[in-house]
Amino acid sequence: MARLFWPLLPLLCDLIYGSLTTPDLLQRVLQPNDSVRPPTGSSSALPNNTSDSGQTQKPVAHAAADSENSLGLGISSSSTETLVEFPESLGNQSVCETEHCYELARAMAMAMNTSINPCDDFYEYACGNWTSYNPMPDDQSSWDNFQVVAQKLTKQLREVLERDDPNDLSTARRKARTFYKACLDMDRMDTLGTWPLIKLLQSTLNGWPVLMADWNVAKFDWLSTIRRTKKYGFGLFLEWVGAGDPENPKKNMVHFVEGSLGMSSRKYYFANHSEFVRTAYKGLMRDLIVLLRDDSSHISAENMTLVQKDADDVYEFESFLAEVTRTEEDRRNLSLSLNKMTLEEFHTRCLNSSISLRDLMDYMSSIMPNATLKALVTKDLLINVGNPDYFLKVHQKLAEYSRDPKKQRVVANYIGWRLTMEFSAKMTQKLRDVVEAFSQSVDGSKKEPERWKICANKANSVMNTAVGSLYVKNYFNESSKAKIAGLVKDLREAFSNIIEKADWMDETTRTRAFTKLDSMYEYIGYADYIIDDVARLDKEYDHLDFGPDHVYNCISINKFSVESNMKDLLKKNNRSLDEALSPADVNAFYDPANNIIAFVAGILQFPFYDASRPEYLNYAGIGAIIGHEITHGFDDQGSLFDADGKFFDWWSSESRARYTHKAHGLVSKYNNYTLPEGSVNGYLTLGENIADCGGVKEAFNAYQLYSSRKGVVEPLLPGFEGYTTEQLFFLGVAQGWCGSEREKTTRNLLLTASHSPKMFRVIGPLSSMPQFAESYQCPLGSRMNPELKAAVW
Ligand SMILES: [Zn+2]
After folding, report:
1. Cα(359) to centroid of ligand 1, in Å?
2. Where is the Peptidase M13 N-terminal domain (predicted)?
3. What is the 695 CA–ligand 1 centroid distance (Å)?
């Protein structure tokens, strides 16, 4: 379970935003950036989807039923007319005539909008009709190939989680099934009512003030409360996690980090574009309070005005916390987040106004799960403080508030709110409905996902390796593992050639870059032990037990995750993602702190990889994804970690200056991309844009390596005889990103996401490649062939 990344940043660079979505209703939209639950609670999961099969099959079947001419691009070469003149077909390139190739060709053709000039907008040209054949399900806020595959995968997870297999002796897998089953039992949740939450608020806070007429401020102090809430995952004003030491990746250390916010980004509290998010969030708070007051045994006689005042105060207090939290942009500057000091220094510099050093040490040791860990807590303990200024300001505020009982109430109400927000979606139908309404008003989705989807994804996220093993055993095609390894080899070579030819790098830096590339670890599919070593798999979840009540199971998970994380402090970081990744995920990763590229089982399938189609489409699909992850090792953040994952600038100052200059070019390029919902933030998305651009280029070059090694010219697809192999490669790249998004989701992502919108993940990289312009014969100066081709690699 251990995932020991430097917690200061989203250092695990995933391929698609937020590693898809979190499964919880509430977290679906505004996932708290809570690094306190790195192993399980907040880790990635799959989205919740609807229909039966991989949707990519749908247009194919549909097309087969239609006349082949209905889309103007059937299966004869005469129908491939577009607005550009294609190079003369050499006439000697064969065409793949299998039924599979016909199906592929139909699906590719149907996604296209050939009335668009590919040199103006290649995304629209390649994907303009995709949405007509792949309408977004009502329960989704974003819909693309990744989600289509994830939908299929979720259904498969449901099957294996619902199947009672008496021969399966794994306790971990049995626990996953128990968890799933309890999650489905909504009648039981309704019968239990809101009592579990009320009880939790009672035991941590002596009751949530906003629900009570007789809340006793004299019994409240924030530090004792945080001591109790930390085990549920809420360290809030004194949050800390165990994670890798950036300067010594083999070692783990304590990192004090900014507390999470109710909404995942500070921008939601202030940005002009986010007024609708704030309104929905305030509404959620008010509605949950009202519902809980109705249910509470401490029903107060106070009127709604007081409720509103309490809610407003909580929001205002959280806005203050948001204000002193770093922006996403500042978080990209890694050196800002490296501030090592002793516990005593931390206290003197940042906490002096609010608590004593003794209190700080007591707080930490009291939540440590065993004596060895407790013994770690001394005033000389070396820690890292992600944002010293945050702690200084928050603790000045807490000190000021502690002198005023009315303000104490605000702090208590805030803590109560965060617990309520965490657990409301596991309560009664009424509460779940309020949470769902909030989700929909924020992300624009129109329907709640079916319960089994929520539960299958939640089970996968909390027991990633156990559920992953079920997936791998039942659905993963083993033969793809070796084939993907072959592609990775070509992609590595392609990147190596790029380094070789980078005339802006000096020789010392180049040699170090080679060393880093050579020592990059590969994780492909899954870790063997989840299939071969049941004892190890079971041991991972040894201390986790589930019963019939979903909410208590979720509480157990939070406690388990926090404890596991603390225990990690005693472990050596063994440069492995084995326990961190979900094999049943449709995503890929780079982890700079361990220098590992990872392609989990869920993504090693159609449409990203398909053993029965021409390889140029595989290099365009999974190849570009592999290239993307390799390039992350050399993006503006990844390049600050050396071959062993140590945070260390191994570049000469001259080469670094030239790198930065090139990166600036890319920032300007993406800053100019706009959508009706807003503009792309070129700096916020820089790392991903570098990876996108490098990935496609490497995949293109890797395919050249492949085809010259094989010495064969692969066949074209039926209906695409007028195209060249290169043109089909680029079409394949672009169609990997076909998709659509709700307007509100686009607005939120433009503001906060590290990835560019789908269309610019195509237009950006392809317009920086002369090979693209040449293959589609785009005139110099056209949008897809600008004079200035900004690129880092
Ligand atoms: Zn990425």
Report:
1. 41
2. 118-526
3. 10
Closest CA to 237 of 215, 260, 220, 254: 260
- Tell me how far the alpha carbon of residue 635 lies from the centroid of ligand 1, in angstroms: 10
* 636 in any annotated domain: no
Count the Cβ atoms, other than its own, within 10 Å of residue 284: 25
Predicted local confidence at residue 301, as pLDDT: 53
Q: Give residue 70's pLDDT band: very low, low, confident or very high (50, 70, 90).
A: very low
Give yes or no for residue 89 having a pLDDT over 60.
Answer: no
Average pLDDT of every residue of the chain: 88
CATH number (domain holding residue 349): 1.10.1380.10
Gap between the Cα atoms of 267 and 579, Å rounded: 32
Between 20-29, 572-581, 634-643, the lowest mean confidence (pLDDT) is in 20-29
Q: How far is the CA of 571 from the centre of ligand 1 (A)?
A: 28
Q: Let me know if residue 80 belongs to a domain.
A: no
Calculate how far, in angstroms, residue 736's C-alpha sits from the geometric centre of ligand 1. 15
Q: What's the confidence (pLDDT) of residue 83?
A: 33
How many whole angstroms from 80 Cα to the centroid of ligand 1?
Answer: 34
3-state secondary structure 237-280: HHCEEEEEECCEEEEEEEEECCCCCCCCCCHHHHCHHHHHHHHH
CA of 457 to the centre of ligand 1 (A): 22
Distance of CA 14 from the midpoint of ligand 1 (Å): 5
Instruction: Find the 629 Cα to ligand 1 centroid distance in Å.
Output: 6
Q: With respect to residue 233, please indicate whether it lies within any of the assigned structural domains.
A: yes
What is residue 574's predicted lDDT score, i.e. its pLDDT? Answer: 75
| pLDDT band, very low/low/confident/very high, at 296 (cuts 50, 70, 90) | low
CA of 412 from ligand 1 middle (Å) equals 39
Ligand 1 center to residue 244 CA distance, Å?
21
Q: CB under 8 Å to 704, separation ≥6 — which residues?
A: none
Q: Mean pLDDT throughout 399-408?
A: 96
CB-CB contact of 58 with 131 (8 Å):
no
Contact 609/618 with Cβ under 8 angstroms? Answer: yes
- Interval between CA 703 and ligand 1 midpoint (Å): 21
| Residue 289 · residue 414 · CB < 8 Å | no
Task: Give the model confidence (pLDDT) of 107-126 as tens digits.
Answer: 999 999 999 999 999 999 99
**Is the pLDDT confidence value at 55 over 80?**
no
Position 523 scores a pLDDT of 95
Residue 324 CA, ligand 1 centroid: distance in Å: 28
The Å distance, Cα 381 to ligand 1 centre, comes to 35
How close is the Cα of 166 to the center of ligand 1, in Å?
Answer: 41
Q: How far, in Å, is the centroid of ligand 1 from the Cα of 688?
A: 5
Q: Residues 21, 271: contact at Cβ < 8 Å? A: no
Tell me the residue range of the domain where 346 lies. Answer: 185-447
Q: Mean pLDDT, to the nearest integer, of 298-303?
A: 54
Say how many Å lie between the CA of residue 691 and the centre of ligand 1.
Answer: 6
Tally of domains in the chain: 1
- Span from the CA of 625 to the centroid of ligand 1 (angstroms): 9
Residue 12 CA to ligand 1 centre (angstroms): 8
Whether residue 222 has pLDDT greater than 90: yes
Average pLDDT over residues 314-331: 97
Report how far ligand 1's centroid is from the alpha carbon of 624 (Å).
11
Half-sphere exposure of 255 (CA within 13 A, CB side): 27
Mean pLDDT of 584-596: 95
Compute the distance from residue 778 Cα to the ligand 1 centre, in Å. 28
According to DSSP, residue 647 is labeled B
Is residue 655 one of the residues assigned to a domain? no
Closest C-alpha to 564, from 539, 589, 547: 539
Cα 19 to ligand 1 centre (Å): 10
Which residues lie below 8 Å from residue 696, measured CB to CB, with a gap of 6+? 624, 627, 733, 765, 766, 769
Share of the chain above pLDDT 90, in %: 83
